[in-house]
Please model this.
Amino acid sequence: MEGDVESQPVADGTTAATDSVANGCSRRLTDDEFDRYSRQMIVPGMGKEGQLRLINSRVLVIGAGGLGCPAAQYIAGAGVGTIGIIDNDVVEASNLHRQVGHATSRIGMKKVDSLITHLKELNPLPTYVPYPFQLTPQNAADIISKYDLVMDCTDNPVTRYLISDVCVLVRKPLVTAAAIQKSGQLTVLNCPPTPQGLVDSEYAPCYRCCFRKPPPPSSMVSCGEAGIMGPVVGMMGVAQAGEAIKILASALHMPVAKNVGDNNTPEKNLKQPTLLIYTFDLESAVGPYSFRALKMGGRKRNCFACGENSTLTLEGIKTGNPDYVQFCSAPAPVVSLAPEERITAAAYHAAKEKGELPDHLLIDTREKEHFSFGSIQGAINVPFGKLLMKAAAIKRDGGPATEILPAEAVKSNTPIFVVCRTGSDSQETVEKFKELGLDNGGKRRIVDIVGGMKAWKQEVDPTFPYI
Amino acid sequence: MSGATETAEIPITVDFSGGLEMLFDNQRRHSVSLPAVDANGKPATIAFLIDYLCKNLMQDPRAELFVLDNHIRPGILVLVNDADWELEGEEAYEIQPRDNILFVSTLHGG
Model:
């Protein structure tokens, strides 16, 4: 009895928006709607009813970047009635290879406004709601509770955990995805939404059930730092739209109420979600591991957010409990160099110009792709990962440090300067060099260039092609 | 192939994804012949495999990107034949011949 799906009345009113999907499924489509959506409505299983559910539903897209652009484009095209978009960023040229809802002519514009401009051109029928600011613990519940489904298109774990926690508490299904470099991931969580504390592995998990703790910050890099292939993140964003459309058109997200007598809807239960991973390989064509669908577990009894003894509340979140920033951060790095072991980019440049540095080695530890765009004259590229590997091998097996530095440089007392991208790997490199005895017992200076090539661009050469 | 050899080593494939391949010679799939029992004669478990990988397969010295306090670090999912390892008993799961063990780093970019 497909037509009999009804949302469950909930005392706190948090699922009020969900009602919109079930209601109004019997009206006539307008001529415009009929034409526009005809090709998807004739797909088996969609029909007029599925289309009306989409038209009556509200989706919140959090992040208007590489995931958010394609995700929003496809739900807008499909006719989701209300689309909210949150982002506090502005469009930059370096976004455009993947953030295809923006445009060259809109560089500098707020991303939400730019994307909505594009979406209105694609489909003027939906209502678009811009939120040109960041999602915060203070505003998250108010915004999220206005929608039927949330798409997490953000780029950081702090916001990801916040979104999931609020989705648990206000009972919204969450379609989450992420991508970096050549890898993408996607999963549907909290669908159908189940009250917090109602524990049974039959129920759908939340983000914390699947990803209990964030990775240490040292292992995380952003797309801005590590790079991202456009189609990888695009594929994940399109897949998010696909999942959202499927859920809304089929009303798969209707909340599970406590003690519902009818247990005969197993096909509607996404209790065991799939984590889709996609790996793009620059070296080979479509390969055997490109797509993998992984089986994830159900709701966890001891989950911090949705588990049986959870103390998570909306009020707590608003007042800073939990502290998301702290949860996702780590102790400050331990490297501490003496003042004489550090020099600013400007001071290094000035000393070199004045001839005060007649003979020295300059080691640049950026990855070779970064180095290939430009470097300080005379710099030798020793990528940080390789450097660590070689340093470990030397430490383990003994042997000279010639693997890292040119042979003639190992024994001499020629000063070594180290530069990296933003100034942290270079400090670690100085420490490593000293550990390897390259400072010749203190007779040779080993110096970190503070702030890396980023500082070089700011302080010395504004035309430097820094990425 | 004698029976003894078959019990001495377990042939499995180990996959890395989400950037973890970087720690393993940039290779996403490795065929591994895992000793069937650990030093105490107990059947090889995932905990044993993790230790074995650190000692025998990892090229990169940044072991902390893979293990932390002798356990897999937070933010890495472990899958046994494409199913979350918690469905299989986590570290205590006893490795079977031809198992595929996948380590995936959770991603946050977007």
Q: What stands out?
A: Residues 1-20, 258-268 of chain A have pLDDT under 50 and may be disordered. The longest helix of chain A spans residues 230-249. Residues 339-459 of chain A form a domain with the Oxidized Rhodanese; domain 1 fold (CATH 3.40.250.10).
